[in-house]
Amino acid sequence: MRLLDVHAHLQDEAFDGIVPQIMDEAAEQGLEAVVCAGTTINDWEQVLALSESTNCVLPALGVHPWYVNDNYQKDGDQLCELAPKLCAIGETGLDSLRGDTRLQMESLKIHIDIAKSHNLPLVIHCVKAFDEMYAILNKTRPAVPVLFHGFNSSTQLARQMRKVCDCYFSLSPSFCSPDKVRKRKTSELVRYLYNENLLLLESDAPFPVSVDHKKASTWPSDIAQSLKNLSGVLETTEEITADQIFKLSSRMFNNKNRIRP
Ligand SMILES: [Zn+2]
After folding, report:
1. Which label site among 8, 73, 105, 114 has the fewest CB atoms less than 10 Å from its CB?
2. Residue 40 — φ and ψ, nearest 5°?
3. Does residue 185 sit within a domain?
4. CA separation (Å) from 212 to 4, 27, 62, 173?
5. Ligand 1 mean position to 8 CA, how many Å?
6. pLDDT score for 211
7. How far is the centre of ligand 1, averaged over its atoms, from the C-alpha of 225 (Å)?
8. CATH number reported for the structural domain that contains residue 143 in this entry
9. Domain membership flag for residue 52
10. pLDDT at 112
């Protein structure tokens, strides 16, 4: 069984000194790679260093909407220079609950331009700002894959976003928990995304809601449990589910050919 965690922050200080242990545990669960997303200009070097130390860490860089500031233009220039090294642009996006929406929009537009010109997928964080996101995507039409990470909204919203971009949706371990995933709305979304081949898995590590109580946060290996829970809802085998999700994930993020076919 092959898996790929499409969203984690291995550079986070919570993981200082234990990244090799995390990657070993991930490999034991069948994970072949982790997309590691930078969130501010201050952690980009760390993300790149991790990706240079092992083929299993696929680098994505962006400015998380919480951390966008007046330097967005300069940050964009630097991102553009680093883009040839990357497997994706992000984390980027909009969050109406935290940060300055006007600056977030400007920064997002720059990130979309960079993704377009380097033909890289976009990794999007969107919280309570889907109308604004729709408007920007409708106007810019990125023409590269757009991943809505940590998606926990409705099937209707997913359908809506597909009208303006080639979008995909990754689900977190807490979204895939047995209690949640059996709920009618959640299982409807899971079936829709899987049947349309739009579903990916992420740990968002180190997300502070642990599915394994021995740890303080999620780890990439947690997506193995997500897969198990989803397969139950989809009434198929873990192998079949994993195969479809892995093929989609690697098609999207393996543009530097770091994962064997
Ligand atoms: Zn993130």
Report:
1. 73
2. -150, 160
3. yes
4. 19, 17, 29, 10
5. 6
6. 63
7. 19
8. 3.20.20.140
9. yes
10. 98
For the chain, the domain total comes to: 1
**Confidence category of residue 261, pLDDT binned at 50, 70, 90:** confident
Is the pLDDT confidence value at 146 over 80?
Answer: yes
Q: How far is the CA of 183 from the centre of ligand 1 (A)?
A: 25
What is the CA(109)–ligand 1 centre distance, in A? 19
Given a cut of 80, is residue 252 above it in pLDDT? yes
**Distance, CA 247 to ligand 1 centroid (Å)?**
22
Within-domain flag for 261: no
185 backbone φψ class: left, alpha, beta (φ>0; ψ -120 to 50): alpha
How far is residue 141's CA from residue 112's CA, in Å, rounded to a whole number? 9
How far does residue 57's CA lie from ligand 1's centre (Å)?
Answer: 15
Q: Which two tokens stand for residue 149?
A: 């990470």
Q: Is residue 31 part of a domain?
A: yes
Distance 7 CA to ligand 1 centre (A): 6
Beta bridge partners of 126: 94
Ligand 1 mean position, distance from CA 125 (Å): 7
Q: What is the pLDDT of residue 260?
A: 86
Q: What is the pLDDT of residues 207-231, one digit of tens each?
A: 987 666 678 899 999 999 999 999 9
Q: 150 CA to middle of ligand 1, Å? A: 8
CA of 155 to the centre of ligand 1 (A): 22
pLDDT of residue 198: 98
Q: Are the C-beta atoms of 30 and 3 separated by less than 8 Å?
A: yes
To the question of pTM greater than 0.70 for the whole model, the response is: yes
